[in-house]
Give the backbone structure.
Amino acid sequence: MTPPRASWSSRLKLDEPRGFAIQVGLVLLLCAAGAFVVGNVGANVARLNLRVGFDFLSRPAGFDIAQALIPYPETSTYLRAFWVALLNSVLLGALSIAGATVLGLAVALLRLARNPLLALIALGYIEAVRNIPLLLQLFFWYFAVLGPLPPPRQSLSLFDVVFLNKRGLALPWPVPEPSFVAFIALLAVGLVAFVLLARAARRKRIASGRSARGIWGAALVALVLPFASTVVTGTPIAWDMPRLGGFNIAGGATVIPEFVAMVIGMTIYGSAFIAELIRGGIASVNRGQTEAGMSLGLSQSRIYATIVIPQVFRAVLPPLTGQYITLFKNSSLAAAIGYPDLMLIFAGTALNQTGQPLEIIGITMASYLLINLAIAAVANVANGRMLRRER
């Protein structure tokens, strides 16, 4: 039986005279510190004759941004520049977190491999990456690896589909066709039908104790509707392929080298820490469960996929969340190599042009705080669901 939670007053010991006096003293001390900071900032603003207020957000920014996920014409406002920079930071953080998780899992499995050479290579990778500062690694990828790349006319090509040169990485880019909306709508209907049929099949399996074949019918329903849409209305997406034209690459989408260097550097750096977390999680799984899987005739890969890995992520999710937050905060180092993220565009260029550090630094700090709180909240929800399943 879960014991009743103590009230806030009892936790703060407000019912006791001594505890009440201590809490009141702390509140007064915090108020005095806050008043001192606010007064000092106000005096400095008046002394330096700084402008205050958020009206600058509606003024034209007047500078270009090398990478923008949303339209950003030259007449855009500082508020638009903020959104562009924020999206660039979020994209960089999301790709780095996903890549570091996948690579970290692979390195952790190599670290535990029976082959001593593979285990030694994984150990060397972890130790080398963890003990070199991230900023230095970013410089390595940007200046030493991507910097000497050839000009566009001598681009490195992969089957004439992907091109890599000193101006960046050129990739095929999907272009929606008129039938795209209908395809997405039918795909959503198919997925909803799949979820409903899969749940019904699961209930039937639990009730009868026999394997339900309805899951295959549910998967077929999810595929039939989008496929029928493609047959009737045509392909929903066309691909704009990059091609060498003149002195540059035409078509497709070009990813700037700063972004490539950041994703590679942060992915590798984060993977070394995540690999150690996952390795610890694997070691925490009772060996008897692995032996039980072997006694059932399961292969080593099947044992890891169905028995070990699901338990590992339950065990390492809290420290993994901290690593994700740290990795996203490290994305602010992108300004060092010129990637147009929140630090470079908003807390750099916009700050220098407007001369309003209080508002811009405050907005920047609040943005990082809210994004990291969102990461922690999602992880807490996932952790809570896992704990309920265990009960």
Observations:
- The chain has a mean pLDDT of 85.
- The chain is about 65% helix and 5% strand.
